[in-house]
Design a protein that fits this description.
By secondary structure, this protein is of the alpha+beta class. Helix content is 29%, strand content 25%. The structure holds guanosine-5'-triphosphate (GTP) and magnesium ion. This is Translation initiation factor IF-2.
């Protein structure tokens, strides 16, 4: 159960966390609700709660049909993708709003309307993509499904409140996913703010600020008063530069579904993050078990676009069904083959039974009976 925590499992089983914890303790295992479960333990626990478990192997899921392995010289720097996390009320939404309005609206009188749960901002002609989703939920669901969409986590900690339970949880998630953390010490405009206290509390749980000799970048900001936001963006670019993020715009698009919905007028609509390649109107895409033709693409401001490159969130219209967040998508040349793979996946999903060793469990394969 790569990425699934005790809490995730309890949610999935519609069981109380404390009941799951009780079983764990009865078995003599030492865990907290945030411990990550391995496939065997998760299977055992799920059975205790009357759920059927399917474990699928990596091999079954990795279906290679894209021939062209990209040449290193075709790979270009792509924009970093950021998820904002933090404790309740520490200012995540305000920060996302302020970044969007200061860095995007400048160019457009009257401001902008955001259309999808992700958007791009620019600093000195360099793009940064923010996933505007309730951080924890999106991050954990995605990760439980094996998708990696985030290059860096911005951890918002209110300077008048300090480290709180969800602050710690966010750190655990980011560490488990091996994603670097940048701390935005927020609300520094407040008279009772105490950034040093936040730094001290963070140092006690393993995040030592660079300015104190550690290696975690911490930026004091005010999301509300829009203080130091450019500095935060600069730091995001700096930290992700080290990661040497590359993509090849010349290949067929691939990426991850961020959201899926059925729109009355427009039919199935998927918000996807194109992570590699270029997605065009007219492309045939394989998304989970759905094969469809891209009828239209709409960017983060609701504008119709013909094509989008790597690190771009975009709305895709024309799919034959509603995909699930965390599904991967792949543009394909060979439609017949794509259908074949889609069918194969569907059959696999149906036929898969218990006991496949060395497999990976994903949240959607865990079904309560
Ligand atoms: P949840 O989505 O509920 O987890 O909260 P959140 O982290 O998104 O916090 P949100 O942005 O909703 O902010 C919570 C409150 O803090 C709001 O009343 C904001 O106006 C206020 N707030 C956020 N940032 C700042 C800041 O920099 N300074 C001050 N003074 N208030 C802030
Ligand atoms: Mg919020």
């Amino acid at each position: 159960a790569e990425g699934m925590t005790v809490k995730d499992l309890a949610d999935k089983l519609e069981a109380k966390v404390k009941d799951v914890m009780r079983v764990i303790l009865e078995q003599g295992m030492r865990m907290t609700i945030n411990s990550t479960l391995d496939a065997d333990t998760a299977t055992m626990l799920a059975r205790q709660f009357g759920a059927e478990v399917e474990v699928r192997s990596f091999e079954e899921e990795i279906v290679e049909f894209e021939e062209g392995v990209s040449r290193p010289e075709d790979r270009e720097t792509r924009a970093p993708v950021v998820t904002v996390m933090g404790h309740v009320d520490h200012g995540k939404t305000t920060l996302l709003d302020s970044l969007r309005t200061t860095r995007v609206a400048e160019r457009e009188a009257g401001g902008i309307t955001q259309h999808i749960g992700a958007y791009a901002v620019e600093l000195n002609d360099r793009k940064i993509v923010f996933l505007d989703t309730p951080g924890h939920a999106a991050f954990t669901t995605m990760r439980a499904r094996g998708a990696k969409v985030t290059d860096v986590v911005v951890l918002v900690v209110a300077a008048d409140d300090g480290v709180m339970p969800q602050t710690r949880e966010a750190i655990d998630h980011a560490k488990a996913a091996k994603v670097p953390i940048i701390v935005a010490i927020n609300k520094i405009d407040k008279p009772d703010s105490n950034p040093e206290r936040v730094m001290r509390e963070l140092s006690e749980i393993g995040l030592l600020a660079e300015s104190w000799g550690g290696d975690t970048v911490m930026v004091p900001v005010s999301a509300k008063a829009k203080q130091n936001l450019d500095q935060l963006l600069e730091m995001i670019l700096l930290v992700t530069e080290i990661g040497d993020l590359k993509a090849n715009a010349a290949r067929n698009a691939s990426g991850t579904v961020l959201e899926g919905k059925l729109d009355r007028g427009r039919g199935p609509v998927a918000t996807v993050l194109v992570q590699d390649g270029t997605l065009h109107v007219g492309d045939t895409v394989l998304v989970g078990t759905i094969v469809g033709k891209v009828r239209a693409l709409q960017d983060d401001r609701g504008r119709s676009v013909r094509e989008v490159g790597p690190s771009t969130p975009v709305e895709v219209l024309g799919l034959g069904g509603v995909p699930t967040p965390g599904d991967t998508f792949q543009a394909v040349e060979d439609v017949a083959k794509a259908r074949q793979i889609a069918m194969f996946r569907e059959e696999q999903a149906k036929a898969k039974s218990l006991g496949a060793r060395g497999g990976r469990m994903t949240l959607e394969t865990l079904q309560k009976h």
